[in-house]
Amino acid sequence: GGSGGGRRRLPPGPSRLPVIGSLHHFLFVRSPLAHHAMADLARRHGAPPLMYLRLGEVGLAVASSPAAAREVMRAHAAAFASRPWIPSMRPAMERGAVGLVFAPHGALWRQLRRVSVLELLSARRVRSFRRVREDEARRLVAATPPGGAINVGVRLAALTADVTMRAVVGDRFDRREEFLRAIKEGSRLVTGFSLGDLFPSSRLVRFFSGTAGRVMDLHRKMFELMDCAIRQHEERRAAMASTPDGAVKEEDEDILGVLLRIHREGGLEVPLTMDIVKSLILDLFSGGGDTSASTLEWAMSELMRNPGAMEKAQAEVRSKLQGKPSVTEDDLHDLKYLKLVIKQTLRLQPVLPLLLPRESTEDRKVMGYDVPKGTMVLVNAWAISRDSGCWDDADAFKPERFEDGKIDFKGTDFEFIPFGAGRRMCPGMTFAQGIMELVLASLLYHFEWKLPAGMEPNELDMTEKMGMAVRRKNDLCLRAVVRVPVPTPP
Ligand code: HEM
């Protein structure tokens, strides 16, 4: 319902000054990371489950308890199912380049969501990329120099980019290197909140920050590369059609191939334009790579800090594999502890700690307060999953806490929502799990991992840094000692 007559009763929060809103409060918080800053601010203002801030021109509501998260994502699902258009991305969006991530809640979004969930990222489709994952995991293991120090994060980022690339546009895309470079540049450009985002109409700020221009250039580049990938797909299809076997077999299709088929077949409620096809593909790249890679890097970091958990996870994978040359996906079913390690990592280090921003499309009363239409809504999943009111020994890395299987990240347990919940929940969860489980199992199976000489487990620094996803500020450099011989490539 709306705010009706009378005075609005906004959720509690820091005092507001004209023009700059609550921005001055951020000058005094300990940490420049938005999820820490929001948690700090909430703590210093009586820990309201739903807090209201004005940042520049943007009204912002932050949910910091499971109950508030449930209100926003389930009870008032329809009112909070859109996303704000980040100012630095607006020029690209206004040209029609809207994919799944930023499509407003409506017919186009519903269409893209259905296609993504049922066709592009379904469990069946994810299974069809098994060979790609196994291939890349073996390559990673084979390329790990025994004894020498390796930068774990860099290797993992390259691996997830390669897997995503092959699943999305196929093995044979011949401008692969350019594409990978563009993706890397993209994750450098997007760094969560920037000053420009807080003053949406201030063209001056946007101009100074310069991000918009670079986003636009990169966007043009990506679209040009996508045009080329689409052309190659069409040519291959034409060539295949003239062979006795006929068309590309459905189980061999990459995601772009599936989308082009759907585009050709037509008959959709909202027709897919080529710009929408390209934007959706780009969403899968930006959603897919950094999130899984960072989660894996955090998992390795936590295991290095917790040698007991490392030992247990390694013992499990080695006893299940019994000396086999490498990990395959058939082996993953039984790796119960490994899956708990990933869950526990997502609890302590949800790589999108504020999920992705939502925006209210109507006035709503939430927990007795008025949340006006047009408010940006964030859910502090990080603060919630470390809340000592919900979790025993909340900051401790204990995979065993998930052993009873009662709590999962599927969007129904609001104290643990690393993939969000409700209509906008991450559609790439199965895709991500596929990569993360196989890669982590492979790293633990073949190698013992050593910290730099003289460093104790509890000295490993865990400082975070904001990028497309939250990652380590300082590189994780580890030495790999071979335990199970690495298979030589055929
Ligand atoms: C560890 C890995 C990942 C994490 C932690 C993660 C997390 C999230 C979160 C928190 C959201 C917002 C949910 C909400 O608003 O309630 C989201 C949305 C999304 N994710 Fe993921 N994600 C991951 C991997 C992936 C992968 C692999 C893909 C695709 C290949 C993907 C594609 C998307 C897309 C397209 C959306 C937007 C959905 C919409 O707005 O309707 N994600 N993800």
From TrEMBL:
SUPFAM superfamilies: Cytochrome P450 (SSF48264). Pfam families: p450. Heme binds at C426. Keywords: Heme, Iron, Metal-binding, Monooxygenase, Oxidoreductase, Signal. GO terms for molecular function: heme binding; iron ion binding; monooxygenase activity; oxidoreductase activity, acting on paired donors, with incorporation or reduction of molecular oxygen. The keyword Iron applies. InterPro entries: Cyt_P450, Cyt_P450_CS, Cyt_P450_E_grp-I, Cyt_P450_sf. Its cofactor is heme. PROSITE patterns: CYTOCHROME_P450. Belongs to the cytochrome P450 family. PANTHER family: CYTOCHROME P450 FAMILY 71 PROTEIN, OS06G0642300 PROTEIN. This is Premnaspirodiene oxygenase-like. It comes from Panicum miliaceum (Proso millet).
